[in-house]
Amino acid sequence: MPALDSGFVVQPNSAPDGEIRQLKLTIAALRQALEDGGTARDELSRMIRAEYDSEISHLKSTIAAVRAQLEQTERETQEAVARAIGDAAKEIAQLRQTIISLRDDIEMSRYEHEQEIRRLSAAADEKAVQLQSTITALRGQLEESTAQVAIQKQAAMAIAASEINELRETCQALRQELDQAREVARRDT
């Protein structure tokens, strides 16, 4: 509160009207000092509010940036999973076409083999054994390829799930850091 002017001090020898006037002047000075203190307090309150608003705006923009990054990472992960699934589906379709082609080839070989059996029974028996072993080997390779595709698909899904979990943990950690920063800011004020 500003110091009062010594001119406002009541003089002991003054008249009652002068004393009342002095008291009124003293009251006016006190009122002015109180208003000046209120103005300073309001200005300080506005400054503090502006700082808080600025910090809140900064934190909101940080959250928005982190959220956008998380969404981008999720989209990229989903696209990678979709590509892996699409690749697996293409490979399965190719394997099915190969199976159909192999079956057609086998049928053709059987027909030719039957023709050969009619002409040469001894040679035909030997070729039949060779074709059966080829079929078994191809089936084994097909089963192995199918198992590998399934394993690769599971691995891709596991990697995608792991990345999503890591992103969730990162988001949680960022939220905790934000909460801690807010707590520190509250303590500092």
Write up this protein.
This protein is mainly α. It contains two helices and no strands. It has one domain (14-188). Helix 1 (16-119) packs antiparallel against helix 2. The longest helix has 104 residues, at 16-119. It is rod-shaped. The two termini are 23 Å apart.
Features of the shown structure:
mainly alpha; 0% strand
How is the main sheet built? none
Q: Into which percent range does the helicity of residues fall?
A: over 70%
Which parts are unreliable, with pLDDT below 50 for 5 consecutive residues or more?
Answer: 1-10
Q: What is the CA-based Rg, rounded?
A: 45 Å
Which oligomeric state applies? single chain
Class by SSE composition: mainly alpha
Q: Indicate how many domains the architecture comprises.
A: 1
Rounded to the nearest angstrom, the distance between the terminal CA atoms is 23 Å
Tell me, briefly, the overall form. rod-shaped
- Percent of residues in β-strands: under 5%
Q: Can you count the beta strands?
A: 0
The number of helices is 2
Short description:
By secondary structure, the chain is mainly alpha-helical.
SSE layout:
Layout: H1 16-119, H2 121-188
Helix pairs in contact: 1-2
